[in-house]
Amino acid sequence: MNPVVRTVLQRLGLGLITLFIVSIIIFSAIAMLPGDFAKAMLGQSATPETVAAFQREIGIDRPPVERYFAWVGQIVQGDFGSSFASRTGYRRTVAEIIAPRLYNTMFLAVMTALIAVPLALGLGILAALYRNSWFDRVV
Asked: Are residues 55 and 38 in contact, defined by beta-carbon separation less than 8 angstroms?
């Protein structure tokens, strides 16, 4: 196998493993937070039956491992879930919240890359041409 292809595949594999480990850490940290999310959302006057029904509805009555793999499966399919931070009481999907801001984010990323990539390539080439000079050490 070509060494470049092998290196790229190794980096992609390590990136996926890192994402998996970080997702487990974050999911576990959130699962271990004190308090009951359902009670916090419904308020103190909620009956135990209402709390239990809400827990079933959002899936927090299931074991953490089952919830984690269900969450990962939804993320892989592009379903990022619903936001409970809506003021209107209507649960909006996370995709609905992110979509309007995605254009500006992509525009900023492309503009940054248009500046950073040529600058980095130029400085790298100059550093290679003037190897072991003060310029090479600064860059």
From this structure: yes
How many angstroms separate the CA atoms of 106 and 111, rounded? 9
pLDDT digits (tens, 9 = 90+) for 20-71: 999 999 999 998 999 888 888 888 888 999 999 999 988 889 999 999 999 9
Report pTM: 0.69
> What does the alpha-carbon distance between residue 74 and residue 93 come to, in Å, rounded to a whole number?
13
- Helix-helix angle 3-31:64-76, to 10 degrees: 130
CB 58 within 8 A of CB 38: yes
pLDDT band at 89 (very low <50, low <70, confident <90, very high): low
Are the C-beta atoms of 67 and 100 separated by less than 8 Å?
Answer: no
Q: Where are the domains of the chain?
A: 94-139
